[in-house]
Structure formats: C-alpha cells, structure tokens
Design brief:
- This protein is an alpha/beta fold and about 250 residues long.
- Helices cover about 40% and strands about 15% of the residues.
- The protein has an 8-stranded parallel beta barrel, surrounded by 6 helices.
- Helix 10 links the parallel strand 7 and strand 8.
- Helix 1 packs across helix 11, helix 5 crosses helix 7 and helix 10 packs parallel to helix 11.
- The two termini are about 15 Å apart.
- About 40% of the residues are buried.
- The structure holds phosphoenolpyruvate.
- The site of phosphoenolpyruvate has 13 residues, from strand 8.
Length: about 250
C-alpha cells in the first residue's frame, strides 16, 4: 500500500551560524540535487530566518524556527511570536526540542499552549519528544513518550494533524554520537503510530510523518530511514555540513 505521508529531513542549526555563515551554508545546500520524494526543512536561528527564507525562495527548501512564544503579543521581553515568524515568511516551527525542555524548563503543559498558538496561526509544528537515558534504563520509555504526547499534543483537533510532524528524539542519542538502533527507532515509531490510531484514527496515524533524531549521519541514515515507520530525520550536528546534510536528505531508498 502506498503511504500518503511525506519523507522529511529537517536540519536544526541550534545556536550556530551568524548571517554570513548562514548564506555560505545555504549556498552550499542549493548546489546539491534533492530527490523528489523528500521535503527538506532548515531551522536557522531567529536572526537568520528572514534572510534564509529569501535566499531559498527559488527552491523547495522550507525554513523553520527553532522555538517561539505561546502568547500572541505583549510584555514578554526577548520572545518572538507566531505572527512575527509568519511576517518574515516562516510557517513552520520546532517545538519541544529536548534542549528547550531540559535547559529552558519547557513543560508538556507549556508546549501544549505553544502548539495551540502555532496551529491557530496555521503554522506547521515539528513536535519533538523522547525519553532520557534513565527512562530507557528503567524500561519506562514508552510511558514517558506517551505522556509527552498526551500532555503536549494529543489535545488537538483531528484536522490539525495535517499540520504536524512528529520527531522522536531519544535524549541519550542527541549530540552524543550514540544513535538509537534502527530497530529501537522503528519500535518507538510503531508504538507512536499505534497510539495515534487508538486515540484518533488510522487517517491520523497513517498520515502523520514521524521523523527520528539523534546522531543521524550519512553513514547511518539509510538504514534508519528504511524502517517502515521512520519517515525521515531531524538532524542536528550533521545539518551544519552541506555535504553531510544532503547525503542524509538523499538517503531514502
Ligand atoms: C537535534 O538536536 O535535534 C539532533 C538530533 O542533534 P544531533 O543530530 O546532533 O544528535
């Protein structure tokens, strides 16, 4: 059966790349061929979003923000709203990255309100979730993931799942060089898809793209992406190198 969901590779640049480094990296990305069966997203820091969006206007590469605030406007010094992102042409936002959860203490409840305002603004949400090493060692990783999803995003209306990409990122595999095995990734992605079918229905569970993140590199992407329920990747470190990122983008069979 042909799946209707898309293959997606998104690059999370984190707090890297000033404006000149942004242009250099984007120019290098633009030189490479992208196969038709994959959607490519890059998420530079806020200061590069508008320029990146303009630099990529003549390409199929989309630009995402790495975070945004949950309120529409007001006295929130240092924050950026959904409308501000949209005003510079950015319609996609990463929410719930493990660094936001761990360093900036973002809770599932807070993330639920960020999800709401993103969807109210007709943005696409890349919603990240994943267990810590202690959870996996304790064997509670499925419960932890289910709770993150239940409290962070399962409240949304069925129609809104068209605007959601899920990103499973086991915290112990992010930036550590340690990758979940393709089997571990598949096991969790399959669990999430089954849970979506139970809580919503198979339109939702079969339609949503679930990408994997955690030390994906050119050398391991093909095997991870070949798994039935893995629809691509969220890439950190390797997204800062154009050749590596594009090798990952083109790693679908
Ligand atoms: C990430 O930060 O989303 C990530 C997956 O990082 P890395 O690829 O460096 O592990």
């Amino acid at each position: 059966m042909m799946s209707m969901r898309k293959n997606i590779v998104a690059g999370n640049w984190k707090m890297n790349c000033d404006i000149s480094q942004t242009y250099l990296l984007l120019d290098a990305l633009k030189e490479q061929q992208i196969s038709d069966d994959v959607s490519v997203i890059v998420a530079p820091p806020f200061t590069s979003l508008q320029s990146a969006n303009q630099a990529l206007l003549d390409t199929d590469i989309l630009v995402a923000a790495q975070n945004m605030h949950q309120e529409a406007t007001g006295a929130y010094t240092g924050e950026v709203s959904a409308a501000m992102l949209k005003s510079v042409g950015v319609d996609t936002v990463i929410l719930g990255h493990s660094e936001r959860r761990a360093i900036f203490l973002e809770t599932n409840a807070l993330l639920a309100s960020k999800v709401n305002i993103a969807l109210d603004n007709e943005m696409t949400v890349i919603f990240c979730f994943g267990e810590e090493l202690k959870d996996r060692k304790a064997g509670t990783h499925f419960n932890v993931v289910k709770q993150q999803l239940q409290e962070g995003i399962f409240h949304i209306e069925k129609e809104n799942w068209n605007n959601v990409i899920l990103a499973y990122e086991p915290v112990w595999a992010i930036g550590t060089g340690e990758t979940a095995s393709p089997q571990q990734a598949q096991e969790m992605h399959g669990f999430v898809r089954n849970t979506l079918a139970e809580v919503f229905d198979t339109d939702v569970s079969e339609g949503v793209s679930i990408v994997y993140g955690g030390s994906v590199k050119p050398g391991n992407a093909k095997e991870i992406f070949s798994k039935e329920d893995v629809d691509g990747g969220l890439i950190g470190g390797a997204a800062l190198n154009a050749a590596d990122f594009m090798a990952i983008v083109n790693a679908f069979e």
